[in-house]
Amino acid sequence: MLQKPLIFLFSILTFVRLEYAFGQSKTTYKQAEILWDTWGVPHIYAKNDESLFYAYGWAQTQNHGNLILQLYGQARGKGAEYWGEKYAQADRWVITNSIYERATEWYALQKPAMRKNLDAFATGVNEYANEHPDKLSNEAKRALPVTAIDLIAHAQRITHFVFLAPQARVAAAEKMQGDKNGSNAWAVGPSKSASGNTLLLTNPHLPWSDLYLYFEAQLVSPGVNTYGISRMGFPVLTMAFNETAGYAQTVNTNDGQDFYELTPAEGGYKWDGKIKAFETKERMLRIRQPDGTLKEEKMVIRHSVHGPVVSEKGRKLIAMRVAGLGQSGILEQYWDMARAKDLAAFEAAISRLQIPMYTLMFADNKGNIFNLFNAVVPVRPLGDWNYWSGVVRGDTSATLWTQTHPYKDLPKVRNPATGWLQNTNESPWTATVPMANNHKDFPAYMAPGPSMSFRTQRSVRMLMESDKITLDKFIELKLSTRMELADRILKDLIAAANLNGSPEAKEVATVLANWDHNTDNDSKGAFLFDRFVRKWVGGTEKLNSLGTSSTLFATPWNLDDPVNTPNGLADTKAALNALLEAAKEVKATYGRLDVAWGEVFRFRIGGVDLPGNGGPGPMGVFRTMTLGAPTDGKYLPAHGDTYVAAIEFSKPLKAKVLTSYGNASQPDSKHNNDQLPLLSEKKMRPVWFTRKEAEQHLVEKTVFK
């Protein structure tokens, strides 16, 4: 008799609790304030985490609203629907890989507290847009309103399907081509630092536009005080430090994307001697036309046991399998990593392996330095790295993997005797030298064998040759523009030019002999050498293969002497011909051979146009800057140093940073190029970590009540 009244009473109480919780969440969203400093960096102080996330969503929208709305729209697979044909190819990749559907599933799997945080961030985005509609473009506002599912879809798209499994790699799979995205990271322990404090370097270098941009911020709430950068549109910091610990990440050599060639057959594809049917689904791609109408394109997506079919050329079908799609906690893990105050807490977070790639570099004020080859690595039944870098057979279960390696299996280094750790996007074996891990102790498919690019060698050399490093020295090393390749071959090259004896060769020899081997603003000879290298290797596209596997050197790379080889010229005649040809072109374009590096390489955004410094990573420049296509004889960075943070875990904390392109992309912001002068002058800004410091440099305050 009492059952129905009890159920009714329970329902009423449940409703009251939900109403109370909803009311509380609405009010707690706005217990925060943003202190905007002179560089457009938000220092967010909140009374609880939901308010912190709300304010962070607001802050990102204020500085980058047009861009993040565009990215969220693309993560839905609706970029073409909102903004036209140019986004159609990216939408096809999103739709083919079920990114938005999977994000919906991941949202349901979030822990309640994290789900509230993500909802709060999305609310911050929407409420900024509602209160400042004139600050956003009409085109960007087509993606409104934003939900937490959009945030998850965006994080998944960028992490899993731009960095881990990019669309461009489908066409390149058979050629086994690598990617160009990169970063530097260092950690220096007490035995190597002058003060006995640990030092950490964070230094991604990626394209200076679109999804690759970073946003610099400080996030403070009860128990949280963390500073760093977010990948654009992410609701959490993706590289961060707090008062006692911090970490950097670099793109690593994890192969989490495998391609399988299927054998088509009537009714499906061949599988273990039988015919297996595809699972198919239909989706509609809508493409906005110039007149505002929508053209519809029906997509039929076929799934094999490996994953979706991503390429079809005649009778050749390629399916793709991606690791890490079952891990839904990527954003929560980043949140926990940023808050970790020591190595134990950091390892507790990263051992969950929710982030499918990136080398992680860590330091804390207890004297710990740590490097992890972080990856969701498939447990593969056969083959080595080269085998899985191409296209493998898809008609047999012998090549199908279903499990991934646990945390304990991954290469890692803690507190090495050398006192330092580094990563420059190479395989994990060169984290320190002498090498702490032997690649033969790990599966042959986990990472490529030992090798060292010239950038890696430059990185290792600077750390090996420096002792008792101060924070100022640490920064000086980071900002080094010296070209390691020049140190290896310039002597031979100058000798060959002098031996030739022609007026042209003698002039070339004089310019190169007077060059300081740096790529600073005023370095004369650097540009001539750069043009020579591109001709010598056979074109700009071959630069990435320059190094350990190259046959251009007299002495090839040797694992027993990994930092000083390769060196010398294998064919001095061919090298001299390339040099003279480069010299002819440089003189024809610029009127002289000793043109300064900063005269032709420029830091230019909007109305700011300044001399540039830094140079190509494949030539061994640690301050990496990739030269884009020339315009009127001038070169701009297509890719390169984007953010630098140099931190000493002292008491109090000491840190300097620079976000190269500025901390905003909105067209009316003064912060979309205001840090270029510091970049040109090879300077960094102090971090204003305390509230007092932020208030001393306060330009604007946003208060939520």
TrEMBL record:
Cofactor binding remark: Binds 1 Ca(2+) ion per dimer.
Entry cofactors: Ca(2+)
Molecular function terms from GO: hydrolase activity, acting on carbon-nitrogen (but not peptide) bonds, in linear amides; metal ion binding
Entry binding sites for Ca(2+): 255, 258
Active-site residues, record numbering mapped to chain: 183 (nucleophile)
Alphabetic keyword roster: Calcium, Hydrolase, Metal-binding, Signal, Zymogen
SUPFAM superfamilies assigned: N-terminal nucleophile aminohydrolases (Ntn hydrolases) (SSF56235)
Annotated coiled-coil segments of the chain: none
Keyword Ribosomal protein: no
Pfam families assigned: Penicil_amidase (PF01804)
GO biological process: one example: antibiotic biosynthetic process
InterPro entries assigned to the protein according to its UniProt record, in alphabetical order: Ntn_hydrolases_N, Pen/GL7ACA/AHL_acylase, Penicillin_amidase_A-knob, Penicillin_amidase_dom1, Penicillin_amidase_N_B-knob, S45
Domain of life: Bacteria
Similarity-based family: Belongs to the peptidase S45 family.
Protein name per UniProt: Acylase
Organism expressing this protein natively: Runella aurantiaca
